[in-house]
Amino acid sequence: MSNQPIIQLIDVVKSFGRQRVLDGINMNIPIGKTTVIAGASGQGKSVILKLILGLLSPDSGRILVEGRDIVTMRSKELNEVRTNFGVLFQGAALLDSLNVFDNVALPLEERTKLSQQEISDKVISTLEQFGLVGQEEKFPAQLSGGMKKRVGLARALMLHPKFMFFDEPTTGLDPEKSMEIYHLFYETQQRFGYTSIIVSHDIPKIFNLADQVVVLNQGKVESFNHPDEIQLSEVPQIKSFVKNTMGYLYRSSELE
Amino acid sequence: MVFNHIEKIGNLTLYYVEDLGRMGVFLFRTVAGVFKRPFRFAALVRQVRLIGADSFPLIFFTAGFTGLVLGLQGYYTLRKFGSDGMLGSAVALTLLRELGPVLTALMVAGRAGSAMCAEIGIMRNTEQLDALECMAVDPFRYMISPKLLATLISVPLLTMIFNVVGIFGGYLAGVELLGVNPGAYFSGMELSVIGKDINLGIIKSVVFALLVVWICAGRGYFVHQIRNAGFGAEGVSRVTTQAVVLSSIAILVWDYILTAILL
Ligand SMILES: Nc1ncnc2c1ncn2[C@@H]1O[C@H](COP(=O)(O)OP(=O)(O)O)[C@@H](O)[C@H]1O
Ligand SMILES: [Mg+2]
């Protein structure tokens, strides 16, 4: 079955103090596909990612990755699961104190037994693929936003993860740089075949990449198998979300 | 009305209990990280340089003036009893048992502790710590435990330097300026300083080093969970100030406790 879920969220609830951010979320992420999580700012999209990554734990509910519940896992097992994860954080989250080369080399240094020569060869060929030749010696503070994201993507892909998580990969980039990131995303997914989960504001452009769209609103989610289904939703919150974010772009088909 | 107050007190209590629990786990993970493999020797060396070697000028300067003042004040006091020959032992005991460890630790808290807190706080805010965890790299073994080990190595050494420089400062003021007999200055010291005094100083400096790293690194690590700290750059700056103040207080309190226990 092509739509077999590889990550499942079941009745996930998460509050911070009195604020209930996620109020019983159910979600299936299909294997090898791209799921886009959309929703207004502050709705808890990053919280969903952090729950799946095991950086936060839910108040209740289960989070299954390849059938295993990561909520009840020991940290050792969780780290095994995480070896299949690649993450591109919102601000790229490169280590400030390391230059581009060392940032990209970090996963290899820490998690493999490769020799320095092998690591160096791999890093250099990766930097070539990501258009980062000549930037090896620069520190994150010396890079532009787009370049940071490329370094972050290169680092995340070093160990060929089965899952890639993107938190707002194009926020803060101009349209041209955004396209560059989308191209890199498309290319690398073709090459590595990873399952991807993208949190994005970039609506409706991001929908071109999506196999499934999950809209988060007021602590609840609604999943759509096809981006076009969203505008036909009868749920009032989704309707208003569509109106606010997509505006008139999709209006024509709604009138049909 | 009354219930509101009770609820507030309850919440506050809960927060402090939670905070203490978090800090306890932090200390445990930091110490455990020291024993995890692979050991990052390069990171340790770098931290010893940053925390230890780079503090040398500050320690030298502080110790020199502390010694000079001790020489002057000691002379002034001892003269009243006609026992200015005891100046050497008074200066040495004060430094070894008390001022050496305390002032060194306070200087390290202000210099290295604040840097540690800010660095880790910024890493928290920019998701660098999350990124390490997601790469299945333990941030404790990777970067926090090396700071602990480096501080535990550096602070006792800096304390010894402080003591030596301070004793010569006292010599300069007492002997060179005020004319105390130089032989008496050093022989008095030899007679009165015993192993226990030196041990007390070393024990203190190790405990203070642990306190500085625990409080400063820990506050930075939890910068996002500290009450009323604010967000972003402001959060980091407030928490850093708080960490330095807290660790300074902790140093003084533990100085008293250790002195009382080990007197
Ligand atoms: N660690 C945290 N502590 C307290 N509140 C948090 C924390 N993380 C997120 N929140 C709150 O949860 C809500 C959702 O945050 P987030 O997931 O970052 O939103 P977004 O959808 O923009 O990514 C926000 O209101 C935020 O204030
Ligand atoms: Mg977010």
Q: Explain this structure to me?
A:
The complex is a heterodimer of chains A (256) and B (263). Chain A has 256 residues and is α/β, with parallel strands linked by helices. Helix content of chain A is 35%, strand content 24%. Chain A has two domains: 1-84 and 161-250, P-loop containing nucleotide triphosphate hydrolases (Rossmann fold), CATH 3.40.50; 93-160, no CATH class. Chain A has helices at residues 45-52, 75-82, 100-111, 116-129, 145-157, 175-192, 236-246, 251-255; strands at 5-16, 19-30, 34-38, 60-65, 68-69, 85-88, 163-167, 195-199, 212-217, 220-224. A six-stranded mixed beta sheet of chain A has the order 6-7-8-3-9-10, with helices on both faces. Chain A has a four-stranded antiparallel beta sheet with strand order 2-1-4-5, with helices on one face. The longest helix of chain A has 18 residues, at 175-192. Chain A is globular and about 55 Å long. The mean pLDDT of chain B is 95. Chain B has 263 residues and is an all-alpha fold. The N and C termini of chain B lie far apart (51 Å). Chain B has one domain (42-262). In chain B, helix 1 (2-34) crosses helix 6 and helix 4 (87-125) packs parallel to helix 8 (195-221). The A-B interface holds A 50, 53-55, 79-80, 82-83, 85, 87, 89-91, 93-96, 106-107, 110-111 and B 122-123, 126-128, 130-137, 142. The complex binds adenosine-5'-diphosphate (ADP) and magnesium ion.
How would you sum up the major sheet of chain B? none
The CATH class of the largest domain in chain A: Alpha Beta
End-to-end C-alpha gap of chain A = 33 Å
| Attached small molecules | adenosine-5'-diphosphate, magnesium ion
Strand order of the largest sheet of chain A: 6-7-8-3-9-10
* Assembly status: heterodimer
Q: Give the helix tally of chain B.
A: 9
Secondary structure: number of strands of chain B: 0
- Low-confidence residue ranges of chain A: 251-256
Query: Helix and strand string of chain A, N-terminal first?
Result: EEEHEEHEHHHEHEEEHH
**Number of H/I helices of chain A:** 8
Structural class of chain B: mainly alpha
The helical percent of chain A reads 25-40%
Percent range for β-strand residues of chain B: under 5%
- How is the biggest beta sheet of chain A arranged? 6 strands, mixed
Mean pLDDT of chain B: 95
CATH homologous superfamily identity of the largest domain in chain A:
P-loop containing nucleotide triphosphate hydrolases
Shape type of chain A: globular
Number of domains of chain B: 1
Structural class of chain A: alpha/beta
